[in-house]
């Protein structure tokens, strides 16, 4: 029973699926049928009839025949074939050949899509042809107006175009032939080719219009403005030579001749209507002329610089030499009191030598300037170099003088430092006496004596003649370090001695109860009497801390409370 029900359900499901699938396929057939009918009803024939308004010859006739043949092919062959395939699909469905029906439907859709594309191509080409004819009629009239204006300009101002007038007239003749070519193409129905002819005419007229505007200005530049600049340049050059300027190194005359040779080339380019090349060459000539003017101006500025700075540099050099001599005398005087290092003396000798070299070089430059055989620009460069070296030498000389002045300052500073260290050492000794220690450790006394000896050494160094400040500074540094160390050890030693006494006093409370405390404190006392305060403190603290942890910190707090505020 269950098997029968299952089979019945499967059969019912299959029938429902089959019904739904067939319904879907028939909807697809209806859609494609409607698409086919819509294509058949397209107004392609009406659109093609627009072409008949044109000259039905040449290219137009060929295109019309091709489009008409394509449309006829669609209507009489391709669409009927689709109709037959739709019938085939219905037969396949009746025979339950769904796969075959589905494949044919795909073929039909692809065929309809291809027909749509072909129709769009026809309509686009048709619009392009008809539109070209309309645009051609509009634009050709505008171009003819531009042509008449260009021809009128050439005739009215032909003298402003020089030898280029003949080639411009030839350009206009070519444009006239272009108009004729356009008319021929239009009359022959070749509207697309005529459209290309319009583009060519437009570009030609644009070029000629630009030439008519540019050529007069270019001719004025080449024939008047630039030659005038070259003439002015020649006159200026001659005037400067007569005024005594040395200009042979600039080769001005040869450069001017080169620019004059370029002008005929520029005019020839204008004549042949190579205007871009002519403009580039003209800019090159003008740039070269500006460069020549810059060279002459450089010589004028150099001449003024030499006349102005020569005397000033001489005064500065003489002043530097005089100051160096004063520094030399000051150096000899300083050497009586201070010992200068070999490096410092070599530095001064180097300054003297450089001043002599600069003086010789200045005399040489001055002689060249007086001979008037060397360009002032070259003299200027040498003077600028000399001035730069002189400035560096001034700075070096000033540093040396500051070093001499620093020696006395360093001596006074060293004597003041010596006085401060003696006071610091005296304060340490006074502090020790005030503390009433039973005695001093041997190592401390040795360091104290050594510090006194180093201070004596510094004093002796300062009394030497000549004074060697380098040796003074070394001795001073060694003494300062030792005095500081002795001062610190003094404070530490006194504090340790006070702590030993307090810790022993504090630990006495445990002497009778603990034999170890009695022995430890006795050993600490022995070390104290031997002036070994640091070891005595360590022994006392270890003894007391063994029976009362933290006792040392409490003793330190009690000691701090006793210090008068």
Structural class: mainly alpha
The total domain count is 4
The main β sheet shows up as: none
- Reading the helices and strands in chain order gives HHHHHHHHHHHHHHH
Shape: flat
Instruction: Detail the poorly predicted runs.
Output: none
**Overall pLDDT level:** 76
Number of beta-strand segments: 0
Termini Cα gap = 118 Å
Question: What features would you describe in this structure?
Answer:
With 565 residues, the protein is an all-alpha fold. The protein folds into four domains: 1-148, no CATH class; 159-274, no CATH class; 299-403, no CATH class; 436-562, no CATH class. It has 15 helices and no strands.
Q: Could you write a compact summary of the structure shown?
A:
The protein contains 15 helices and no strands. By secondary structure, it is mainly alpha-helical. The protein is flat.
């Amino acid at each position: 029973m269950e098997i029968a029900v299952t089979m019945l359900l499967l059969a019912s499901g299959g029938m429902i699926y089959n019904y739904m699938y067939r319904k879907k396929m028939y909807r697809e057939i209806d859609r494609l049928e409607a698409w086919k009918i819509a294509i058949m009803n397209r107004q392609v024939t009406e659109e093609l009839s627009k072409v008949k308004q044109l000259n039905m010859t040449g290219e137009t006739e060929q295109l019309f025949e091709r489009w008409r043949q394509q449309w006829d092919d669609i209507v009489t062959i391709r669409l009927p074939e689709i109709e037959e395939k739709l019938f085939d699909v219905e037969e396949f469905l009746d025979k339950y050949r769904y796969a075959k029906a589905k494949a044919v439907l795909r073929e039909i859709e692809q065929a309809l899509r291809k027909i749509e594309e072909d129709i769009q191509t026809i309509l686009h080409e048709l619009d392009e042809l008809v539109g070209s004819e309309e645009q051609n009629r509009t634009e050709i009239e505008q171009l003819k107006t531009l042509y008449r204006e260009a021809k009128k300009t050439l005739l009215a101002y032909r003298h402003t175009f020089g030898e280029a007038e003949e080639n411009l007239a030839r350009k206009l003749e070519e444009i006239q032939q272009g108009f004729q070519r356009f008319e021929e193409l239009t009359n022959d129905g070749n509207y697309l080719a005529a459209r290309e002819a319009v583009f060519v005419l437009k570009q030609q007229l644009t070029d000629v219009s630009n030439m008519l505007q540019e050529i007069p200005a270019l001719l004025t530049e080449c024939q008047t403005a630039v030659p005038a600049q070259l003439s002015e340049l020649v006159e200026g050059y001659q005037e400067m030579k007569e005024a005594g300027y040395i200009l042979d190194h600039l080769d001005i005359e040869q450069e001017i001749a080169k620019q004059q040779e370029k002008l005929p080339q520029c005019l020839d380019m204008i004549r042949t209507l190579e205007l871009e090349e002519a403009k580039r060459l003209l800019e090159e000539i003008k740039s070269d002329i500006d460069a020549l003017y810059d060279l002459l101006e450089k010589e004028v500025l150099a001449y003024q610089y030499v006349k102005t700075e020569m005397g000033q540099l001489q005064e500065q050099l003489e002043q530097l030499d005089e100051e160096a001599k004063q520094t030399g005398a000051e150096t000899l005087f300083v050497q009586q009191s201070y010992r200068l290092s070999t490096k410092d003396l070599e530095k001064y000798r180097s300054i003297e030598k450089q001043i002599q070299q600069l003086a010789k070089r200045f005399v040489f430059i001055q002689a060249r300037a007086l001979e008037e055989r060397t360009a002032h620009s070259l003299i200027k460069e040498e003077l600028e170099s000399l001035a730069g070296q002189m400035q560096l030498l001034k700075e070096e000389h000033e540093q040396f003088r500051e070093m001499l002045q620093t020696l006395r300052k360093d001596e006074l500073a060293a004597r003041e430092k010596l006085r401060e260290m003696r006071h610091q050492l005296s304060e340490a000794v006074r502090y020790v006496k005030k503390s009433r220690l039973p005695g001093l450790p041997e190592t401390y006394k040795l360091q104290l004596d050594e510090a006194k000896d180093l201070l004596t050494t510094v004093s002796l160094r300062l009394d030497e003649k000549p004074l060697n400040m380098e040796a003074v500074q070394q001795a001073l540094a060694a003494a300062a370090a030792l005095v500081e160390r002795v001062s610190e050890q003094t404070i530490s030693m006194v504090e340790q001695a006070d702590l030993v006494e307090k810790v022993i006093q504090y630990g006495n409370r445990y002497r009778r109860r603990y034999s170890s405390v009695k022995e430890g404190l006795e050993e600490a006392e022995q070390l104290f009497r031997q002036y070994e305060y640091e070891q005595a403190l360590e022994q006392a603290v270890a003894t007391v801390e063994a029976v009362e942890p933290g006792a040392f910190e409490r003793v330190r707090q009690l000691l701090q409370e006793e210090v008068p505020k």
